[in-house]
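Researcher: Can you fold this with zinc ion in place?
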Amino acid sequence: MSILDVKFVQGFIRLCNDGWLQGWHERNGGNLSYRIKPEEVEEVRQYFHEPGEWKEIGTSVPDLAGEYFMVTGSGKYFRNVILDPEDTSCIIELDDKGENYRILWGLCNGGRPTSELPSHLMNHEVKKKASGGSHRVIYHAHTTNVIALTFVLPLRDEVFTRELWEMATECPVVFPDGIGVVGWMVPGGRDIAVATSELMKKYDAAIWAHHGMFASGPDFDTTFGLMHTIEKSAEILVKTLSMSPTKLQTITPQNFRDLAKDFKVTLPEEFLYEKEGQ
Ligand code: 13P
Ligand code: ZN
């Protein structure tokens, strides 16, 4: 028995490798964090070493005080996580104020958790509350087609949501609340973390213009599936726009309302606006 036999650790590693295989993680691009359940902490506690030094998170997440997370390391390559999880990822504990963290396992050759730790933890704090505690995974990926679209579409939630919904019938069912957009900002700090977590109050996914995407979910499958669905939809939109700047036909606002009824989802009317020439 090793820590690598523990289910959540395997799920973490598998997501990293799946993301790499999708082409979303050039070099050290992207990062992943998982809020570990109390009973899972007990499963892995035997593998913890002497706690490292307390270090500043760079923001404050009081509602996550005392919680444990598995997180990818800063500068580490997703393609290497499956080969050496102990070098590329870590388990951290937060202090009783939610202002500092310390490493309990992993990053065995040195290093620190992802530079996007403030965004991950602020998103976890918001999603923990918004989901009644069910959301546990925050995933950041450099999704090629979503990034491409941030150069040609207005950076507005309602535009990205509607255009991506139109590209595949399953989309409004997979992300009925829509998707948020953050304009270009310097990554890795508190400001972008605050802007992203503000959007995460409303959405399960947020786009960072000219950079990538964040997705949140209760487990690895749902979170990866959300990222995959949105990026696939963006790929169809890129292809469609490459063939023609206008659509000959599409899914209409009334089609969406009919879909919502049958699939028992609520689709906010703010995304079902009338478009010119439709
Ligand atoms: P890290 O290597 O620090 O996780 O940064 C990668 C990244 O994608 C920054 O946005
Ligand atoms: Zn990034």
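Model: Folded with zinc ion in place. The pocket of 1,3-dihydroxyacetonephosphate (ligand 1) is lined by residues 28-31, 72, 74-75, 114-116, 140, 187 (CB under 6 Å).
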